[in-house]
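can u do me a favor
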């Protein structure tokens, strides 16, 4: 391992350098903190031994500047008599440990060995995360196509960083599913994943949803309320359909992303938030920028890394895997086996799927409900009001499932409620609003149908 020694005492630099070389380390020395920062920025070091008190810069300032410039080596502070408080302050800022002068050779070597072991473990975890990342995301995002596998490998690499990601693709391609997978693979996986559909909430309520409000700030604000940024603190926030965000809120969102703090409506004090932001949209944001519908500065801030989900019609090889996945889910919900004939599989693979993965999921749900526990044929899948024959075309203009109107209406209602619950992240009140029914009616229908979420 490479160690950089930063100390204005020439004798200490020399003795430490000799000790570390004898113990198998590669040691470099600097007397000037500024020179040490420049060297640490241009060369790779695993550990830095830094004196707490130096003429030009104290150890805490050195640590802050080093981390601010992107340095990642472990720092061990060296403190003399009367400077232990400064060493402890450095540890609160992120230093790994400190050595109290005068120190014994064995003490120095033992401290470095512990730091070395920690760094080795960190690298092993990072390597494991990298090697397993693509596999984890592929378990969450079902696919077989080469294009999707390449996309998911990129997603697994992006996940471990705090980078803002813009996920694009047609409606129904699975943008939120991909966002959840990125969160699951990120260092924030144990924290909250919060999603909001910017197109589903009225403009006058959206600011309060995002940033919160203080009691009495507007009619109906009967209590202080945290916004979604605060609820997602130390976690991930997905801004779905971000292209529909009003221009005024775009400016406020940009300020939050730049400053890392939110101000509630009617609030006086800003609140610090640590949130990893993912954004998704079916719109072409470049065109929206040209037309003045979307701020260019916000677009560039969101578009740090872009992940584009291709429509299902461009990756038909994914249909069999998705079909199997949704059939398994339907079987668990309905309590009976769900399978399809080879003819049905061939027909479904040839369909254009204008509604993408969401349309396929709903088609499987409907066929499984209406077809019962028998093997489903191509005729059981009604797409766009038409059944499918073995060639993927209409079969006499009619589906062949049960014609009982009540059964068909209930099947449609069940799918609609399921979609509303998924769109609202399980929020029953919001789902009822999306469906245009009362919360009481939603609960009644969920018990009667039943709907599981």
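np, heres the sequence
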């Amino acid at each position: 391992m490479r160690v950089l020694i930063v100390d204005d005492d020439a004798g200490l630099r020399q003795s430490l350098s000799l000790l570390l070389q004898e113990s198998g380390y590669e040691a470099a020395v600097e007397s000037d903190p500024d020179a040490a920062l420049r060297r640490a920025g241009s060369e790779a070091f695993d550990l830095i031994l830094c004196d707490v008190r130096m003429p030009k810069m104290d150890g805490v300032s050195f640590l802050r500047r080093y981390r601010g410039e992107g340095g990642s080596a472990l720092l061990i502070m060296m403190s003399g008599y009367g400077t232990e408080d400064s060493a402890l302050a450095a540890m609160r800022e992120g230093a790994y440990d400190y050595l109290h002068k005068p120190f014994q050779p064995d003490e120095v070597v033992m401290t470095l060995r512990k730091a070395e072991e920690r760094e080795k473990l960190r690298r092993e975890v990072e390597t494991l995360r990298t090697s397993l990342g693509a596999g984890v995301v592929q378990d969450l995002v079902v696919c077989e196509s080469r294009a999707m596998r390449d996309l998911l490998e990129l997603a697994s690499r992006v996940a471990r960083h705090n980078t803002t990601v813009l996920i694009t693709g047609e409606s129904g391609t699975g943008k939120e599913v991909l966002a959840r997978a990125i969160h699951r693979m990120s260092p924030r996986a144990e924290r909250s994943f919060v999603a909001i559909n910017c197109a589903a909430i009225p403009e006058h309520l959206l600011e309060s949803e995002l940033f919160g409000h203080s009691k009495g700030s507007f009619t109906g604000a009967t209590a202080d309320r945290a916004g979604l940024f605060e609820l997602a603190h130390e976690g991930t926030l997905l801004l779905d359909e971000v292209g529909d965000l009003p221009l005024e809120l775009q400016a406020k969102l940009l300020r939050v992303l730049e400053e890392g703090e939110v101000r509630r409506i009617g609030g006086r004090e800003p609140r610090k938030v640590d949130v990893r932001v993912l954004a998704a949209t079916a719109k072409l944001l470049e065109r929206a920028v040209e037309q003045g519908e979307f701020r260019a500065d916000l677009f560039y801030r969101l578009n740090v890394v872009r992940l584009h989900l291709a429509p299902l019609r461009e990756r038909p090889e994914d249909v069999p895997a998705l079909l199997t996945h949704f059939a398994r889910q339907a079987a668990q919900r309905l309590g009976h086996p769900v399978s399809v004939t080879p003819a049905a599989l061939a027909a479904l693979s040839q369909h254009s799927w204008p509604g993408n993965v969401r349309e396929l999921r709903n088609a499987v749900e409907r066929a499984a409900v209406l077809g019962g526990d028998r093997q489903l044929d191509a005729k059981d899948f009604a797409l766009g009001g038409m059944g499918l024959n073995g060639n993927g075309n209409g079969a006499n203009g009619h589906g062949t499932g049960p014609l009982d109107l009540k059964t068909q209406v209930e099947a449609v209602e069940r799918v609609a409620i399921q979609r509303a619950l998924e769109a609202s992240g399980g929020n029953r009140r919001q789902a009822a609003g999306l469906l245009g029914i009362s919360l009481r009616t939603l609960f009644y229908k969920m018990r009667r149908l039943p709907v599981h979420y």
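The longest strand covers residues 74-79. hope that helps!!
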